[in-house]
Design brief:
The chain is mainly alpha-helical. It has a single domain, classed as Up-down Bundle (Growth Hormone, Chain: A), CATH 1.20.1250. Helix content is 79%, strand content 0%. The chain has 16 helices and no strands. It is globular, with a radius of gyration of 21 Å. The termini are close together. The N terminus and C terminus are likely disordered.
Length: 472
């Protein structure tokens, strides 16, 4: 593809009023991306200031479980109230959660604030995915996903830098106030750029599915707080089963939280959802515990450790942008390659995280991120393209839902392993050594499930003209 043709493709992407709305979507993704990277960087400092190491993983996991319910209902909320009203409400809730986190006197209050932030952020990102499915033609989906990945790249540069500086200065509370201000900016932008009004006020509320999602969130919470490893593992497994049941629950067309094909891994939508869930779950251990492990085992500062972990996002962004313009015939092989990268990177991390060298850990993080970047854009395009008539926006929003569920399940599993190793009493060299191997070794089987599903998506032949990305 020549450079002039690429410029014309980007001009087409930004035409017809899509540029401003794309900027709004990027701002919503930025709120989630920067929050994740900054929080992982400052958490060792927050843990020392507030205590409560038994709740260490919940600073991340509570944010995710709060987002699960909101992400699962984002499609329905946007349809009933309109994108503008949904985004405004989500931004206000996020700002409120930031205020609670900034004022937290102890770890339990911080966890509560993070849950509220996750609730608002889940609606924000879920509504952004709805907007992608509603605003952008199929031919632009891969590039739109690649741009969303590039926001993670920017956050990778700025997040650990800002987080590390505030952590080393002991002013981590100011970061939450800064995120609250950005959430209010998102509210103002949504008010100015989007139309009001819902489109499906006659839809029935899927109360049974909502109840199952709530039950799954509650089981994840109980699993991470359980005193015994066996009980925690059983509760975590049961939570995944409940979420799977909520996806497979039969509903009338248009009345569900998820598209009707979501629970069938033999098809593109079901396999794509499973791949997103399992690959995100497998990668979460490094995001949650990577900074603390690098600081304790290899003597890195919070700033440097944050950048080392953030290299995963660099790999994700670089890979997603590099392949976003490839023609359709390359999509299947790239999906397969990305899945193999995730499995291989986690296996390498299990071998090198304890003893180093740090360069090998950083390189594995980059390959892990690259694997996710190679797979998710093309899987997302295929999932949305395979949506049934009338379920395009719902299918698009579901991508974020299953990623959040996978992230929460992965954080829960990582928390169980870490507390079993002794993190509940503090981060010592002994607990860090014990965690550094099993955290990643046990993630490999989960990644293999995601790789199988990704290969399934890559293998299914697409019907109709390849309209997403054509050779010029």
């Amino acid at each position: 593809m020549t450079a002039p043709t690429r410029r014309l493709d980007w001009d087409d992407l930004l035409a017809e009023g899509r540029a401003a709305r794309l900027a709004l979507i990027c701002l919503g993704v930025w709120l989630n991306a920067a929050d994740s990277l900054v929080t992982s960087t400052i958490m060792p400092t927050v843990g020392r200031d507030l205590g409560g190491y038994a709740l260490f993983s919940w600073a991340t996991a509570a944010y995710m479980v709060g987002g699960i319910l909101s992400a699962a209902t984002a499609g329905m909320l946007s349809a009933r109230t309109g994108l503008r009203n949904a985004m405004v409400a989500a931004g206000l809730i996020t700002a409120a959660g930031c205020a609670v986190s900034a004022l937290a006197p102890d770890m339990a209050t911080l966890v509560a604030g993070r849950a509220v932030q996750g609730l608002g952020s889940g609606w924000i990102v879920g509504a952004c995915y709805v907007a992608i499915g509603a605003i952008f033609p199929e031919r632009h989906l891969v590039r739109t996903f690649a741009l969303m990945s590039s926001i993670w790249g920017v956050a990778t540069v700025l997040g650990p830098l800002v987080g590390g500086l505030f952590a080393e200065g002991g002013h981590w509370r100011g970061l939450f106030w800064a995120f609250g201000a950005q959430a209010m900016l998102f509210v103002l932008a949504a008010l100015g750029l989007l139309e009001t009004g819902g489109t499906s006020v006659g839809r029935r509320a899927p109360l049974r599915q909502v109840a199952l999602v709530l039950g799954g969130v509650g089981l994840i919470a109980c699993a991470d707080l359980a005193s015994g490893a066996l009980l925690a593992a059983l509760l975590c497994a049961l939570s995944v089963a409940v979420f799977a049941a909520s996806v497979r629950l039969p509903t009338r067309p248009g009345d569900g939280l998820f598209p009707r094909d979501a629970g069938h891994p033999g098809g593109v939508v079901g396999a794509g959802y499973l791949a997103n869930f399992a690959l995100m779950a497998a990668a979460m251990g490094f995001s949650v515990y990577g900074p603390a492990l690098l600081q304790k085992l290899h003597g890195l500062s919070p700033l440097v450790a944050g950048y080392a972990v953030g290299f995963e996002s660099v790999g994700w962004t670089a890979a997603a942008l590099a392949v976003s313009g490839l023609p359709l015939r390359w999509h299947g092989p790239i999906i397969r390659l990305g899945a193999l990268c995730v499995v291989g990177a986690l296996a390498v991390m299990a071998l090198v995280t304890r003893f180093g060298p740090v360069a090998a850990i950083v390189a594995a993080a980059g390959v892990l991120g690259a694997g996710l970047g190679l797979t998710f854009g093309f899987i997302g395009r295929r999932v949305i393209a395979a949506a049934r008539n009338g379920e395009r926006e719902l299918t698009s929003a579901g991508i974020n839902s299953v990623r959040l569920v996978g992230s929460a399940a992965g954080a829960c599993l990582a928390g169980i392993l870490a507390n079993l190793a002794g993190w509940s009493t503090g981060v010592t060299l002994k607990t860090a050594n014990a965690t550094s191997v099993w955290l990643f070794a046990l993630a490999v089987p989960v990644a293999l499930v995601g790789a199988w599903a990704a290969w399934r998506v890559a293998a299914i032949k697409e019907d109709g003209p390849p309209s997403a990305l054509l050779d010029p």
